[in-house]
Amino acid sequence: MMTLVPLSPALGVEVRGVDLRRLSEGETEIVLRAFRAFHLLLFRDQTLDEAGQVRFARLFGRISRQGAIQKASGGGATYVSNMRGDGTFGEGELLFHSDQCYYDHPMKAIMLYGIEVAQDGGETLFANTTRAYARMPEGLKRRIDRASVRHHFDYGALHYGETKRAEVEALKISAIHRVVGRHPETGAPILMVNAQTVDRILDLAPAESAALVGEINAHIAAPDNVYRHTWRPNDLVVWDNLSLQHARTDFANSQRRTLRRCAIAHDLEPAD
Ligand SMILES: O=C(O)CCC(=O)C(=O)O
Questions:
Q1: Domain membership of residue 212 as a residue range
Q2: Could you say which of 12, 194, 226, 268 would form a disulfide bridge with 7 (CB–CB 3.0 to 4.6 Å)?
Q3: pLDDT digits over 188-247, tens only?
Q4: Ligand 1 atom nearest 123 alpha carbon
Q5: Which of 142, 108, 99, 124 is nearest to 36 (CA)?
Q6: Pairing assessment for the beta strands 40-43 and 13-16 based on DSSP bridges
Q7: How far is the CA of 205 from the centre of ligand 1 (A)?
Q8: Distance 197 CA to ligand 1 centre (A)
Q9: Residue 178 lies in a domain
Q10: Is 210 domain-assigned?
Q11: What angle do CA 151, 260, 87 make, to 5 degrees?
């Protein structure tokens, strides 16, 4: 029987008692409802090949083709890996961010499946931005409610797999969002500021913008607003990229780490 077990007070449930290779219509409905309510779902001990993962991902929407990595996936999966030649974002720490804020329509969800996992570090952290906003002092909310922010594609501190580096660096992409955006499906407030890709909060001097981004990030990354996922092989995690931000703890690159990834497009992502 299918059961939902909360993962943290901030977000997420573990879904037990299902085999993702053969979900019934009723189970699919419960999964999609739980996704909307809890923003992150964990399924453990799943045996999934690439086709099976893509099939499950497509229940959440179409596969994104926005940006070099997603385009390269050809509508299928990519790999977060320090082992594979085609691996991307394989090494080291990542700060809290939502993917693709430098586009008008960032992807709606991300799905990772554990193939090889680090024994020490390499955990993925998830923070609930709607909850972070709700818990902010009114004075801070007033300062950001009408503000806008520019993001640019600058993962300079990150490490791409060599095969992708040239394509990725050739992209010069930026977008402007409200600091307090609205979730496209629920209308809930979401924070469109992150530690990784913000260029500037508009109309603020660089130092003021950096200080305000730091203040907002402190609310997002507050330990009691975060779920920390320690990977096991055969874990599948799918999360809402707009309600949540994610980060990764550091790990020694001598440890093999490979996660299979599907990116699910925002409903308004232009068809290519
Ligand atoms: O490796 C991880 O834990 C996170 C990877 C990531 O940031 C992503 O897939 O967007």
A1: 3-264
A2: 12
A3: 999 999 988 888 899 999 899 999 999 999 999 999 999 999 999 999 999 999 999 999
A4: 3
A5: 108
A6: parallel
A7: 31
A8: 15
A9: yes
A10: yes
A11: 70
Q: How many domains does the chain have?
A: 1
Please, what's the largest Cα pairwise distance for the chain? 56
pLDDT-derived band of residue 156, with 50, 70 and 90 as boundaries? very low
Q: Are 215 and 206 in contact (CB under 8 A)?
A: no
Global confidence as pTM: 0.93
Residue 271 within a domain:
no
CA distance linking residue 144 with residue 30, whole number of Å: 35
What is the CATH number for 227?
3.60.130.10
With 80 as the cut, is the pLDDT of residue 35 above it? yes
> pLDDT of 232-245, one tens digit each?
999 999 999 999 99
Q: Whose CA is nearest to atom 3 of ligand 1?
A: 124
Distance (angstroms) between ligand 1 centre and the Cα of 238 equals 11
- Whether residue 239 lies inside any domain: the answer is yes
Q: Report the pocket of ligand 1 as residue ranges, CB < 6 Å.
A: 80, 89, 94, 99, 110, 112, 124, 246, 248, 259, 261
